[in-house]
UniProtKB/TrEMBL annotation:
A Gene Ontology BP annotation from the UniProt entry: signal transduction
Protein name, entry field: protein-tyrosine-phosphatase
EC number: 3.1.3.48
Active site: C296
Residue ranges occupied by any Tyrosine specific protein phosphatases domain in the UniProt entry: 270-346
Length: 384
């Protein structure tokens, strides 16, 4: 893979104040250090430079630098790869310095606001620098307003490819705001989604997501919602919600993983792996299900961790290899900034390394081992 290195002018902080997503610490972590935010490190408009002399991730030895055109960045995201066997994956998960370096070189592919000339858009974006990539943006049909010429309603969401490049397997989106709750349910209905994965509390110092479902029953625009079943699991809650429009009704399964700690990655990989397995089992038992909707607050950090973990587990199961670098690059093609911090990137490696161990133990007929504790660097940033 060609190497990307930043120009010296990009090291200063962006002028855009942005909240960060979850990033990691744990009880046995090293002393706290300040995590460099994606927007601070690059910024949506900061140019990158290409080190043309290096073609691998092993070292960067820049002989000359040129401005990086967008097509070069897209090419890097499409072609970068590092498939690892379980043993290689487990070894790589311990190489935190290398993983940090690997992560820093992945282009963010953030969107310039000028690419989204949509009236009223800014009022529906939770964070002004976290925007949906135009090529994969979810466009809400607006039948009620078609006669008035308004054929689309804006929502900050992107289609995300799944395992083996399967199109529109997921939708990554921001946590609904007070003025976008109706749009969220319109998307659920339009995409015939029957699975929603939520990975954030409603409030973490500040609001991260509007409560968009009722305790029992409620009306949300043209939708009537009724909570049929609530089941408490380890670290997350499952709700079966009946959504009805006129005489038509559908069931949506809502997974709420609310225990991902503020300002950190989880202390161990087990809860996320159980959630990934539970959601995948639900998908496999209902092969006609629509797109799985995943959100945190901004829809790139914890959301990216869940989707990347899901794809990586399927890679290990079907090919006995996992390509974390390739997964994250492909995610960023669909939605800029997916996997928001270096700590999340390390946590992804640890999660898939643990899953590879579980596969080996399952093949040997023994029970899965207790998930190993996570030890990544701390952060002082706010979370998404």
């Amino acid at each position: 893979m060609s190497e990307l290195v930043e120009s010296t002018s990009s090291s200063s902080s962006s002028s855009h104040p942005v909240d960060e997503d979850q990033s990691g610490s744990c009880p046995a972590a090293t002393a706290p250090r300040r995590t460099v935010r994606l927007q601070e490190r690059r910024g949506s408009n900061v140019s990158l430079v290409l080190g043309v002399s290096s073609l691998t991730l092993e070292a960067v030895e820049t002989l000359c630098s040129i401005s990086t055109p967008r097509e070069t960045i897209l090419h890097l995201l499409r072609t970068s790869t590092r498939p690892l066997t379980p043993s290689q994956l487990q070894e790589a998960a311990e190489e935190t310095s290398r993983l940090n370096s690997e992560y820093q070189k992945i282009p963010t592919n953030f969107v310039n606001p000028s690419e989204l000339d949509i009236p009223g858009r800014a009022l529906k974006d939770r964070y002004k620098t976290i925007l949906p990539n135009p090529e994969t943006r979810v466009c809400l049909r607006n039948p009620a307003a078609e006669e008035a010429g308004e054929t689309e309603r804006y929502i900050n969401a992107n289609y995300i490819k799944g395992y083996n490049g399967a199109p529109s397997t997921y939708i990554a989106t921001q946590g609904p705001m007070l003025n976008t709750v109706h749009d969220f349910w319109e998307m659920v209905w339009q995409e015939r989604s029957t699975t929603i994965v939520m990975i954030t509390k409603l409030k973490e110092k500040k609001e991260k997501c509007e409560l968009y479902w009722p305790e029992k029953e409620g009306s949300y625009g043209r939708f009537e919602l009724r909570v049929a079943i609530v089941k408490e699991c380890d670290s997350y809650t499952i709700r079966d919600i009946i959504i009805q429009v006129g005489s038509e009704s559908r069931q949506v399964r809502h997974y709420w993983y609310s225990t991902w700690p503020d300002h950190q990655t989880p202390d161990c990989t087990g809860p996320l792996l159980r959630l990934v397995a539970d959601v995948e089992e639900h998908r496999q038992s209902h092969p006609s299900l629509g797109t799985t909707i995943v959100h945190c607050s901004a829809g790139i950090g914890r959301t990216g961790c869940f989707i990347a973990s899901s794809i990586g587990c399927l890679q290990l199961k079907h090919t006995s290899k996992a390509d974390v670098l390739g997964i994250v690059c492909k995610l960023r093609l669909d939605r800029g900034g997916m996997i928001q911090t270096s700590e999340q990137y390390q946590f992804l490696y640890l999660t898939l390394a643990q899953y590879s161990r579980q596969l080996v133990n399952t093949d040997c007929g023994s029970e899965s081992p207790v998930p190993v504790p996570v030890q990544t660097g701390s952060t002082t940033g706010e979370t998404r």
